[in-house]
User: Fold these one by one.
Assistant:
Number 1:
Amino acid sequence: MSGKEQAASARTRRRGDDLIRAIHAAVLAEVIEVGVGGLTMEGIAKRSATAKTSLYRRWPSPRELLLDALHEAHPEEVPSLSADDLRGDLINALRQLVTWMATPAANAVMAIVNERHRYPQLVDALYDQVFGARGGTVTSVVLQHYADQGTLDPDLITPVVRDIGEALVFKRALDTGALPDDETLVAIVDQAVLPAVGILPRATRRTAAADR
């Protein structure tokens, strides 16, 4: 089967969600390879074996398609409804972040942010339509959920506190060249995030009680 025949066969077989996933994968791979400036509907269509007219029917531009793909790929925190496991929910939120950091979507985000000076409007849209739409900085959704349930003092959930978990994950990854392991995520929650919202680690609480 020739290349054209294979592409035609792929277009025939894929429908609905399968086709959208293929297009999303294509736009992420494309922006990683050619950068924001080289992103075109032609390139995405060729990579996804999809007609360019099909892309324009759903997305007005390659950048809108890129933002849609990033939104779909971005993790969304789901804290426990009963709000009875803050520590576990925070650790799970950081696990979601680490898992995402190993995906093409994370590499695509880096490609965009690295060109912030050239495409400030796209970066603004990234923060608004992707990060903001998914709840903001990682752990923000969990912390706000527990504050809404009366478990945490909402005054303690400042912008800096919201950033702590995510910032430490990224710093560890930059410092070591590897994604943080589970032990590190637990340490970040126990030694940084929880104390910032007024909850001391168990060992510290036991020591304080003994001193009294």
Number 2:
Amino acid sequence: MKKRFFLSIICATLMANPVYARTTYVSGSLGIGLTENALWRGGSIEDKLNNSAVVNGAVGCNINQGRLELGVGYQSHKYSDFHPLWGDMSFLTVMGNGYYDFNTNNSVSPYVMAGAGLVNVHTGNDFMKQTAFAWQVGTGICVKVAPWVAVDLGYRYLKPEGLHSILNDTLAWTGHNIIAGVKYDFR
């Protein structure tokens, strides 16, 4: 129930087109997910995970010096200390994100961002299949290369909360994502 309510609020906020919204946009990014090890049972068991590719996409609107967007991301990390049959641990996120773009009066604009939403975590051996709350914070630089196109280089700290396996073992995991992307403003 809480998940549906939270998603409804995010969708309603992002779909509302305020009078002062200048433009809407779409964006996409690729990067690398630098993962911390998965810690089970309060850290008594540690699984080593390999770094992986990260793919993100979003739709949003620019509002004065800020941005609101609905983003979707995916990353899948292979276990590096288990037999290959264990598969991988994948993370699919749906997040409402807010950005603040610092006005520099030129084509380069640093930003900070924060987001919250849901993450679906799945292991290849079905030891974990769960949707939970997740949050992220980040920073980066946007460079306008045309009046309607900007390229982006950024960092995201991604943290799912309340994860547990089918045996009710708790899981703590954190991702550090370095991404490069393109944002297209509709004018």
Number 3:
Amino acid sequence: MARRLSPKSPSAGKSSKRNGKTFRRFSLKQRFAQLLNFDLFGADPVMDGRIHSISRDRQGEGVDMNAAPENLPEVGELYRLFDLFNLLHFDGKLPNVRLSYSTRMLSAGSCSPLTPEIKLGVRYHQIFHEELTDTLKHEMIHLVHYYHDAAFQAKAEEMGVSMHAQSHPDLRRPSRYVYECPECRKTYPRQKRFRMVSCGDCSDGSFEKRFKLRLVGQAKAC
């Protein structure tokens, strides 16, 4: 259990006076400790006020802080984790973002730095629920490094974050098109249309017209 700090203790933060009132100043490390244990300073934790102010702002934007898909944390908990990782890994310099769950996406998550907004995939994390914090941290890096370039990889390695999500049969979209080789009858399910493609088993590595794949199945438009 975390040690309680007395207001008189030197480690509780330096004091300063403003308008006749005394305030305590806290280092980044002390603020991080407060995030880990909100009751560290009794009923008046500095970061607790920050989290609640974020909560009020998001509620004002129409965000349901108590929304939570089955077996996943509430949205309010996502904001708390965001603040925690922001302080720990980015010196608190990341902008405030909108956090939400997506029931439509099959990927682990997405980040839109210009909005800014981070979405976490419900289907993915209901299968790999232990990866939720890893995904959140991965998408937070995208706020600074949009592409999976060397800078992104260096930050991910520093934070111990995965570069790629896992695969699972339930996370695959149904094929929109099915192609077949006219010679060996091998089928090729695909999301996009083929144009000039021949069977990989029958051709010699280059396109051969006699082995050109033909469309034999197509999903109906919704």
Number 4:
Amino acid sequence: MSETPVTPPVRNARTTALICVGMVAGMIGLAYASVPLYRLFCQVTGFGGTPQIAEAASETVIDREMKVRFDANTAGIDWDFMPVETEIRVQVGENRLAFYRATNLSDTIVTGTAAFNVTPVFAGAYFSKIDCFCFVEQTLQPGESVEMPVSFYIDPAIDDDPEMDYVKTITLSYTFFETETPDDSDDLAYKAPAPDAAAVN
């Protein structure tokens, strides 16, 4: 018995279906790839108020003072999170260190990661972080409190941007989200001290 030949309309339909599947797969792949690319773009350009990551400390300080405010938020994580100081005054180009305090209010080990931005958003291109707790995930034991530093400066190039002349205050804002705790978290948990052998005897 001979096979029934595939008619052109059926062949065309199969070709169209394969093309559609390929396009959907390509769009999904692009969506996943676009997340790190978007983050990189924001870090390089300061787009959306994303601060810059400096490779070294500032070596130039100019005669312009600005106020830096510190904001703290949490989303879906049982932590108390706040700045140690709510605002400071800095000279543009001056290297400064600020601290945020986080406390794990839960009875379990919790790992968090911090998203960050500055406002006004156009100031992101001039707010440079040298080092920051937000560069890595933070794991806190039950009830543990820590002070976490952020080292930064305001790029003197801000003085050359006429659109930034009106800016007197920059707000650095963080939001902590809960992330998956590492598999070795049991090694970080509090453990009751072993009984003293002499006391037992």
